[in-house]
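Go through this one:
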Amino acid sequence: MKTLLTLVAAAVALAAVVWCVGLAIPRGHVAARSAHFRSSPQQVWAMLSNLPGYEHWAPEVTGVKRLADNDGHPVYALEGKWAMPLEVESTEAPRRMVTRIADPKLPFGGTWTWELRPEGQGTRVVVTERGEIKPAMMRTMARFIFGYTSTIDTYLKALGDGLQETVVPGPVGT
């Protein structure tokens, strides 16, 4: 019984430390990553700007439903592990698209800006996340365990897979 109480006390203490550390981490962050694609900007844009098609290439997206517009901007409900509504805030085909998580009740939010730049015979894709993580414990995990760029890297690799090419995400400018 004493061992069980010690384990419970240790778990509570650890949770308190993780929570306190999270309180010191800002809610907002900016993270950016890039990858070079052999595909043309038009080919990358065709896949990226087709949100209903995300279920065919985007990780953990099992379906997409069109929702009502928000202030004239299209909104799509992504279904699957990371189900969330995404608003297409702006587009400049085939160069730039900004999406925003369209549910302020979620524990996280923010925008992803996708920039497509011709580079050599292909395209440089830069994703910039301007995010917010509300719960302190989630901020600690994002900062020290998952990292702010892991989801961006996963999506860049998946976009490459969808275009039938292998890409290696890296810092912006490489």
Notes: The radius of gyration is 19 Å. The domain at 2-162 is CATH 3.30.530.20 (Alpha-D-Glucose-1,6-Bisphosphate; Chain A, domain 4). The longest strand covers residues 108-119. The first helix runs from residue 2 to 24.
